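Format notes (please read before filing issues)

Several people have asked whether sequences and structure tokens are stored in separate files. They are not. Every record keeps both together, in the order shown below: the sequence lines, then the token lines. Line labels are part of the format and must not be stripped during preprocessing.
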Amino acid sequence: MIYNKPIPIFEANFFLADLAAGFPDREVIRKWSVGTGETGKRLTEYYDIIIELENRLSETVCLVNDDLIALYEPMGKDEGGERQVETNFLANCFALCDHRAFACIDENESFRIIRDCAAELPRAIYNMLMKFSGIEFSKYEPVDTLAVVRAIKASDYSSSSKLNLIYAAMEPETYAEKLISLLTPVIAEFRKCAELYAPLLKLYEETLASFKSEMELIRYFWRTNFDFVEEIDIHPLIMLPIKSIMGIDTPFDNKGDVFIGALAYFTRKNIVYSARENELEATLDALSNKNRIKIIDELSHGERFGRELAEKLQVTTGSISRSMNMLISAGLVKMAGLGSRAYYSIDYRGVERLMQLLNQLFYDKK
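Then the structure lines:
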């Protein structure tokens, strides 16, 4: 189902994450060439709205707040220097306990879920660390705090990330309250701005109404296999207006939530390039990093799981996860599950599509 109203706590959560990571969308938008005519005029209006929104929300946050750093800065090193939606932050572990933690229209219900999740937070941290380790484990088997601490120390995260994870595992209730305290003023300010961002919602409704189904819509933004998906809910994304986030835990779930930036379709259609050029840019962008090229080279010899790739390339599993998100979104890699492991392999349908696009670019001049 396609919804036309944003979820304030989700907006606040990823706004804080983008802010802590150091690349709010206003820095991206400033680089746009607006152009002239009606399209240029509309884009300028949307640009002004986004800048004002970010300024208002930023005023509610102290950037040197230790809790903001602990809960929202990306964990580990970012070898690739990616400037994309970052999901690898401590606060997101609450969503691993219960996917509704940041998906309720009523933030009080989300806060209740976050508090309820505190008891499961050590287990969620452990699961996150084990996911790419290649070690067989049960997602539901009880695990004591000592085992979680050992797993954290054995991880390839940075020292500061390890400390934050250990503190969170030992005092999950405290971290739940810290998270709620950070989110509350941002949510309140976002709600006050409803009249300001109304034009962005109107644009979202106008542009996405042309799609016949939810599946057609998400396939426009992600060129990968969605045959496993049985149910999908799509929501607007205001604070990250040109980005999109998919909340499907492939391949272990068959339903999920998708958040599509209110400006994402508008910029693709009117500003960036033609449909073909936009698709080609996204695919080549996914290949514009030596580590991602090395990943493709490794996968050409057969399927691999995350830890194997991390050890082979001598990077962190967090870096592998971010690279995989780009390669899967570009349709070049697919993921499958075996027990608790996530295996990756080349999606040759996407490769064939890339060859077709390159052939059209260089040879097809009709």
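For reference, the curators noted about this record: The chain has two domains: 8-199, 273-362. Confidence is low (pLDDT under 50) at residues 78-83.
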